[in-house]
């Protein structure tokens, strides 16, 4: 059986993309009637829903008198993937992903505006086809904006990886299954700051720089798309707010 070729001699991947091309993106804000804000995102065949509740009064055990408490919970729907993990393994991964999402987001929320308050972000992966952490961060930041939470910047996330000796952007599950090193970057486009950098395995420093540059390029492309989505959502909601007083 011949080895699977992930990138053709013409530079095309199995799904027809170039090596530096992101997957098709589809976004809907206000997708769910539950919560104070929500966002549904598709990046290729990966589908994620994020719902935000708050800001509301913080639970006493989590109370911070000076700033908001950000609570993030990540889960994967049972039908999201054909892979069946043991519950203990799945629970551990969900906790790890929740911590990473919170880490990427909490520095961009203007937390001092919400003392003694709490914001809950619930992220559910509905279909997993690679890049679930990146898509979850993107859905969460869009849901926060839909909820009207004050933020300093967009947090956009994207992956880049090495497959068959080539650096490629926004890996799908088939490419990720090749088990080459891949990097998820969460990036603030206005401040040009990397707020999260998550590797799946070790890689030489020169390759890391190459992966990071490509992932940041993907984040910048996504930021432009998300800006348009948010602007359209604001234009849609303005008439319902009525004339300014």
Set down the secondary structure blueprint.
Blueprint: E1 25-29, E2 37-43, E3 46-57, E4 69-76, H1 87-105, E5 117-127, H2 132-146, E6 156-163, E7 166-169, H3 173-176, E8 182-188, E9 193-199, H4 205-241
Parallel strand pairs: 4-5
Antiparallel strand pairs: 1-2, 2-3, 3-5, 6-7, 6-8, 8-9
Low-confidence parts: none
Instruction: Decide which structural class fits the backbone.
Output: alpha+beta
How many extended strands? 9
> Taking all residues together, what is the mean pLDDT?
89
Distance between the termini: 72 Å
Instruction: Estimate the global geometry from the Cα principal axes.
Output: globular
Supply the number of helical segments: 4
Q: Percent of residues in helical segments?
A: 25-40%
Strand content: 25-35%
What is the H-and-E element order?
EEEEHEHEEHEEH
Rg estimate, integer Å: 19 Å
């Amino acid at each position: 059986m011949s080895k699977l070729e992930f990138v053709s001699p013409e530079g095309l991947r199995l799904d027809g993309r170039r090596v530096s091309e992101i997957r098709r993106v589809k976004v809907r804000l206000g997708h769910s009637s539950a919560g104070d804000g929500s966002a549904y995102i598709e990046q290729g065949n990966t589908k994620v829903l994020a719902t935000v509740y708050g800001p509301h009064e913080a639970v006493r055990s989590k109370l911070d008198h000076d700033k908001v408490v950000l609570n993030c919970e990540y889960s994967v729907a049972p039908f999201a993937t054909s892979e069946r993990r043991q519950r203990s393994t799945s629970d551990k991964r969900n906790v790890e992903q929740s911590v990473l999402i919170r880490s990427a987001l909490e520095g961009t929320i203007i937390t001092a505006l919400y003392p003694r308050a709490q914001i809950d972000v619930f992220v559910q992966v509905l279909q997993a086809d690679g890049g679930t952490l990146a898509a979850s961060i993107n859905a969460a930041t869009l849901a926060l904006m839909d909820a009207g939470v004050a933020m300093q910047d967009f947090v956009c996330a994207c992956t880049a990886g090495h497959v068959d000796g080539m650096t490629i952007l926004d890996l799908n599950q088939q490419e990720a299954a090749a088990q080459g090193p891949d990097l998820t970057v969460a990036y603030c486009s206005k401040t040009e700051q990397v707020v999260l950098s998550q590797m799946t395995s070790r890689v030489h420093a020169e390759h890391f720089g190459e992966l990071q540059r490509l992932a940041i390029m993907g984040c910048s492309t996504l930021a432009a798309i998300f800006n348009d989505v948010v602007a359209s959502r604001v234009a849609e909601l303005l008439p319902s707010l009525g004339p300014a007083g």
